[in-house]
Structure formats: C-alpha cells, structure tokens
Amino acid sequence: MLRAVRDHKQAAEKLDVEMMRLGVHWADLHLADPEFAEACFTSPKTFAGEGSPAIDEFCVPEFATMLGRTNDSAGHFLSQCVELAYRL
Question: What band does 47 get if pLDDT is binned at 50, 70 and 90?
C-alpha cells in the first residue's frame, strides 16, 4: 500500500514538472514587445520580476480554460513558471 502511495506521489510530481514546462512554453509563445504592443494587438505584462520577459496577458484566459482554473489562478501559475525559467 505505501509503495503505491509513493509511486503515485512520484508520478504526480513528474506531471507537475511537465505542467511547468508547458507553462513556460506557452508563455514563450506569447512574448510581447512593449514597444510594438499596439501594432501587434497585445497587452504586455511582466508576470515575474526584473529580468523576465513581458508576456501578452491575453494568453491567460485560454491557458486557464485548458487548466480548468480561473484567470487569476492561471496567471499566478504562469508567473511561477516564468519566475523559475527566467529568474532562478
């Protein structure tokens, strides 16, 4: 029984890592250049701190829908993904 619990926990952790990778990839697909935001119909937002790229905040609702989360929750998740990828 305990072995099954451990195995399921390890599998869940691997899925969490893969979800973070997908979050980073989604953010990378939606990089926004603040200089040309109006021309590209984007709304640049820095999801993480200094040194992280600006991401088009309009990409969050689609991501939220696929995650089954609210926009705020998905935005927070993307912030964590970008923070890990670009700042740590």
Answer: confident
